[in-house]
Design brief:
Two copies of one chain form a homodimer. With 540 residues, chain A is α+β, with helices and mostly antiparallel strands. In chain A, 33% of the residues lie in helices and 19% in strands. In chain A, the strands form four sheets. The first copy, chain A, has a six-stranded antiparallel beta sheet, with helices on both faces. In chain A, helix 13 packs antiparallel against helix 14. Chains A and B meet through strand 9, helix 7, strand 11, strand 17 and helix 16 of A and strand 9, helix 7, strand 11, strand 17 and helix 16 of B.
C-alpha cells in the first residue's frame, strides 16, 4: 500500500500540519522577534528540520501479515510519522534525526471488522498495539516505546474512521467515529446547525477518540470543560470484544461504564465511535479583556466569577509574563479574558455582572463592558484577539522554536483555590530555579485554562535558551522540579494533557495504590494478552 | 449495648421517621380523601402497622464477637430496623410481620478503626457486610438477603460518622463523614453560609455516603443533578485497605478513581468520608407554575428550556394525572414548574426567557413571570407550593398507603428526547395494562424529575387498589411489565434509584457483558473474600 492510495493529504512526519504546508515565514519571524524583544531570548540557528531521506529506521521486527497487507504500511514516512507525539522531547529527537522506536508497521483500518482483525492478530502474536488518533499527544501516549517483552509493536491509525454516522437533532446528539479530526467532525455537523464546540489547541490534528481516551479539555473555561461530560455513549473494541454503552442523558445504574473507558488512554481497548452531546451554534456573544495591576486580585476575581453561576465560556487569566509573551499585555499587568456565548439569549447581562465582579477586585474594566455593551468582535480584535491568535498558532511554532534554540514547553495542573497560592509560588520557584540552573536564564509564565468553583487549572509555559544537544536533559530537569512541586502542593500531574508514558512517575505517586490494582485487574479482564498501549497508566 | 447508649433518637423499625413521631392524622386523612376523590381509589382498612412485640426473628447465625461487642447490637428492634429499605415490597413485608432475612447483628462503628476491625472480622469469618446509611433504599440495596453461601450477614450502620470535619471556604468545599444525614450536614454547613443543596425526597433519612454509593440525584433539575458532580475527593475503606483520592476541582490523569467508587453501591468497600463541592446559600429566587393544555407541547417546551443554557434549578413537568394527584392541577392540564435561584445575581431575566419559551409552546404563563416579576414565594404557595409539599410528605405517606390498601409505587428512568415519545407511550401502555390486569383499575402518572439537553428523566407513579396478601405479586407483575418496556425503548432501569438487588434482572440486560467482567475483576482485587454487599450489581 502506498500513501497515495489513502487519498488523504499526507501529514508531516516531523512538525505540525500537512506536508504540503509551507511554514509561514512572516509569522515565524514575528514570533521569534517577539520572544527576543519582549523576553530577551537569544535566537539561535540549530539548522534545518529533518527530511525523510535523512531518516534511518531499524528494520521491522514483525512483517505485515498477508491478511492485513491491504491496510498496513511499513514505509519509512509512515513509521517515522507515528514515532512521536508533539511534546518538546518529540520535536527535539525528531530534529536530531533520532527515530529509535518506530512502530514496526502502521495499520489504517477502514472498518471495525478490520480493526478486530488487527487486534486478533496482535493478541495471538504478542505484538503491542498503540491506538493513534491525531498524534498530538504531549505525554508520549502514542510512542511505541514498549520495551523488549513484545515480539513487535504496531500503531493503529484511525484516520479512516472519520464519519458522523447519525445525527439526532431532537436530542442534539450525533454518533461520530473516533478517528474524526476536529475540523472533520465540525464540518459534518455544521449543516445540522450543531457543534461539539471542542476547540482545544490541537483541534486540527486531534480526534474524538483521542479526546475521550485522554480526558481532553476544550473550548469552555467553565462548567462542561472536559470531553467526559459530552460523552453520551461509547463503543469500545477491546481485545475480548465490543463494549457498547446505552445512549442516556444521565444514568444511575451502577458504576458508569463510560467513565471506566474515558481516560483509559488506549490501555483497555480502542474507542471506535461515540454518541456525543452537541450544542446549537452560538448567535449571541460578548467578550472583554480586563487588565489587573495585581495578580492576586486578578485570580481572586476569577475565583469569584467561577463561583457566581455565570458560567462564562471563556475565563482565562494571563499572568504578566503570559500576557507579555502573547502580546495581550505589556508585562506590567495580568489580564482576565472573559467571554460569554449563547444560542438562545443575549449575554450582555451576564457579561455586565462578571465585569462588575472584576471591577470590584480592581480590574480595569472597559466602560462598555460594565454597561453590558461589550464588543462582540473582541474575540478577533484587541487583547483577547491577540491572545487567541497566539493560542491557535501555538502548535505551529514548535518547529520554529526547535530550530532556533528556544526551549519552550508547557505543563499544567489543577488544584483547589485554597491550595493555589502555595502551588503557584512553589511551582514558579522550583521551575524558575531549574530554568536558571540548566539554561542560565528564562521565563515561566502562567495562565488559567479552565476554572471551577473549587479551583483553577493553572497552565505554565517555560521559555528559555536551549543548548543544542542538551535539550532533553535541560527539559528533564525543569520538568522534574516542576512536577515534584505540583504534587507536593496538592495538584494533579495533569488536568488535560493525559498521563501517557511521560507522566508515569508522578501519576504513580498521585494514584491510590489499590485503585491501580483494581484497574490492573480490569485491564487483565479485557486485555488478557496485555497488548494495549503497554506502559501507559498501568504496567502489564 | 442498648439503643439508649447510642444517644440518638430511635428510628421506626417499620415506616419513615423517628419512633417518637406520631403519624399526622389530619394529613393522612387528607391524602386518602384526595386519592379517593381525585382518582376514585377505594380506601381499605388492612389493619394497624406492626409493633415490635409482634416481630419474631430467626436466631443470629453468628454471635457478636467480644472484640466488637461495644459497637454492635443484636436486639430485635435494631435487626428489624435494618431488614428492609423503603420500597413497596419492604413496606408490605414489614406490614405482614415478615422479617425473614434480618442481619445477624448490626454494627455502629464510631471510627474508621472500628470499621476496619469489622471488615477484618467479616473477611476472615466469611460474613457478608451490608453498608447502611439512612436505610432509604428503594432497590433492596441494603436488604441482607445474601443467600446461604455465607456464614452470616451483618449490617454496618454509619450513623455515628456524621460530622463535617473541615470546611475550606475559599474552595467552597467541606470534608464530610459518610454517615451524615441530609439535615445533619446542612446544619453543620449553615454557619459557614454554605450548602450542598442536595434536597432529594429522602433527605431526612439518607446519607452522604449513600448518595455517593448510589449516584443519587438531588435538588437541581438541570446541570449538576447527580451527586457524582459534587464529589471532589473520596475516602473508601475496602477490605484490602484505604483508597483515598486527591482533592481536585477536575482531573485528567487516567480513568477517574472517584468514578469507580461512585455508584458502586457498597460492593467495593465503604465510603467513610468525602470532600464535597458546596454552594453559597441562594438569595435570589423566582419560580412559577405553567399549565399546558397539551402534554406534548409541555415536554417540547421543557426540551427547549433544557437546551437553552438557562439551567433552571427546578424544571419539573407534571402530566395531567400527576398534577391532579398532587393537587397542582385539575387533571385537564400538564404543569411545568420552573425555578431559578442564585447567590450572586437576580434571576428574573432568566425566568422571563424560560417563561417566553413556555409561552411559545402554548404554556399559560402568568403575566408577572413573562415580565420577569415572578412571585418569589411561589415555592411556598400556588401550584408549585402544593406540589412541593406533596413531594416532601411522600415518604411519610407510604405507611398510610400500605395500611389502607393503596398499591402505590414509583419507577424512574432516563432516555434521549428522541426516544422519549416511544418510551412514554410504551411504558404507559405496558404499566396501565398490567395495572388493570392485576388490580382491576388504577392510574399511572408521569413527571420529569430532571432534564438534560439530550433527554429527560421521566418518573412514573402507580396508584391502584391493593389486594391484601397479594401486593407483592401485584407489584411484581406491574414492575416487570414497566421495566421491560423501559429497556425495550432505550431507557435505563434507573436514573437515580440505584440497582440494588431488585433491579438486577434488568440491569444485567442493560449492562455490557465485558464491562461486568471488568468490574468483577476490579471487585476481586479490592474484596477478595467477596463479603461486600453480595448480590448487588455483580455476583461474587
Amino acid at each position: 500500500m502506498t500513501n497515495e492510495n489513502l487519498d488523504l493529504r499526507q501529514r508531516k512526519f516531523w512538525g505540525w500540519g500537512f506536508a504540503s504546508e509551507v511554514t509561514d515565514a512572516v509569522a515565524s519571524d514575528a514570533i521569534l522577534h517577539a520572544l527576543h524583544d519582549r523576553l530577551d531570548l537569544p535566537i539561535q540557528d540549530f539548522g534545518p528540520g529533518p527530511t525523510i531521506s535523512e531518516i534511518e529506521l531499524k528494520s521491522p521486527r514483525v512483517p505485515i501479515p498477508a491478511s492485513l497487507a491491504a491496510i498496513c504500511s511499513d514505509m519509512t514516512w509512515d513509521r517515522a510519522e507515528h514515532t512521536y507525539g508533539k511534546n518538546l522531547r518529540d520535536y527535539v529527537r525528531g530534529f536530531e534525526r533520532h527515530f529509535d522506536n518506530p512502530p514496526d508497521f502502521v495499520a489504517f483500518p477502514r472498518t471495525e471488522d478490520e480493526l478486530t482483525a488487527i487486534l486478533d492478530w496482535a493478541c495471538t502474536g504478542d505484538v503491542a498495539v498503540i491506538p493513534y488518533g491525531g498524534g498530538s499527544s504531549v505525554a508520549s501516549g502514542i510512542e511505541p516505546d514498549v520495551g523488549d517483552s513484545y515480539r513487535g509493536v504496531i500503531t493503529v491509525d484511525l484516520r479512516h474512521l472519520n464519519q458522523v454516522l447519525e445525527v439526532d437533532r431532537a436530542s442534539r446528539s450525533a454518533l461520530i467515529q473516533a478517528g474524526a479530526l476536529g475540523p472533520d467532525l465540525e464540518a459534518q455537523l455544521k449543516p445540522h446547525g450543531l457543534t461539539l464546540r471542542f476547540y482545544l489547541q490541537s483541534f486540527r490534528f486531534s480526534t474524538l477518540g483521542g479526546w475521550i481516551a485522554t480526558r481532553a479539555a476544550g473550548h469552555f473555561a467553565t462548567m462542561y470543560t472536559q470531553i467526559d461530560d459530552a460523552v453520551q455513549a461509547m463503543r469500545v473494541l477491546t481485545p475480548r470484544g465490543i463494549v457498547e454503552t446505552r445512549r442516556l442523558p444521565s444514568d444511575g445504574a451502577g458504576t458508569s461504564a463510560d467513565r471506566l473507558f474515558i481516560g483509559s488512554e488506549g490501555t483497555l481497548g480502542i474507542i471506535t465511535q461515540a454518541w456525543m452531546r452537541l450544542r446549537d451554534r452560538p448567535t449571541f456573544r460578548a467578550s472583554v479583556a480586563v487588565p489587573f495591576r495585581d495578580f492576586e486580585a486578578a485570580w481572586q476575581a476569577v475565583r469569584h466569577v467561577s463561583q457566581s453561576d455565570l458560567w462564562p465560556a471563556n475565563c482565562r487569566l494571563l499572568n504578566p509574563t503570559e500576557a507579555l509573551l502573547s502580546g495581550a499585555g505589556d508585562g506590567s499587568t495580568s489580564v482576565v479574558l472573559l467571554g460569554f456565548e449563547s444560542a438562545d439569549h443575549p449575554v450582555e447581562p451576564l457579561m455586565a455582572r462578571a465585569a462588575e465582579i472584576c471591577a470590584s477586585f480592581g480590574g480595569l474594566v472597559p466602560a462598555e463592558a460594565m454597561q453590558g455593551r461589550s464588543a462582540t468582535d473582541a474575540n478577533l480584535s484587541g487583547a483577547a484577539g491577540v491572545w487567541r491568535n497566539f493560542f491557535i498558532k501555538g502548535p505551529e511554532f514548535k518547529e520554529i522554536f526547535t530550530r532556533h534554540g528556544i526551549l519552550r514547553e508547557t505543563f499544567e495542573t489543577a488544584c483547589t483555590w485554597r491550595d493555589f497560592p502555595g502551588l503557584h509560588a512553589g511551582v514558579i520557584d522550583a521551575a524558575t530555579r531549574a530554568v536558571r540552573a540548566v539554561c542560565g536564564t528564562g521565563h515561566v509564565a502562567c495562565r488559567f485554562t479552565h476554572v471551577y468553583p473549587d479551583g483553577p487549572a493553572p497552565y505554565y509555559t517555560v521559555l528559555a535558551p536551549a543548548k543544542k544537544g542538551a535539550e532533553l536533559e535541560q527539559w528533564a530537569a525543569i520538568k522534574a522540579a516542576a512536577s515534584d512541586a505540583v504534587l507536593a502542593a496538592g495538584g494533579t500531574i495533569t488536568h488535560h494533557h493525559a498521563v501517557g508514558r511521560f507522566h508515569r512517575p508522578w501519576y504513580d505517586r498521585q494514584r491510590p495504590d489499590l485503585f491501580a490494582e483494581a484497574m490492573r485487574a480490569a485491564k487483565t479482564a479485557l486485555d488478557p494478552a496485555a497488548v494495549m498501549n503497554p506502559g501507559v497508566l498501568i504496567d502489564p
